[in-house]
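hey so i finaly got around to running the thing on Multiple antibiotic resistance protein MarR from Paraburkholderia gardini. pasting the sequence first so u can double check i didnt mess up the copy paste, my clipboard has been acting weird all day
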Amino acid sequence: MDHYTKEGFTLTHSIGFAINKARNLLVNEMDAALKELDITSQQMGILLAMKRGTATTPFELSKLLGIDTGLMTRMLDKLEVKQFLGRSRSLEDRRVVNLTLTKKGEATAARIPEIAPAVLNNRLKAFTKAEFKEMQRLLLKFIAD
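ok and heres what it spat out for the 3d tokens, dont ask me to read them lol
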């Protein structure tokens, strides 16, 4: 089923426009809140994924977060320079780079849950629990493969 036609398509009424604008609002608010930790919202995703063991290589992080490998490399470079993580080559496969959080990275990742929920809750304050659940369900449906 087509939801858009070329005759009725307008930028500001497209789902893509709304999702992109919502993302930009959230990124700006999250980045401002995370400034005290010296990380961005994108870097937050990397640190949390590593802390929870969800991803331990650049490839796994790229796939999980939907970030191309070139950008991922640049983000990891910045996190390494700031001493949030370390890299090492796999002994089994030299092509694989393993990532580990440093003590500073661990401490920073542990502080993220003190900050991020407040930003999200503020943006969602006008939503009922049912609206929140429905929005979550629909977004997960939208991004499903």
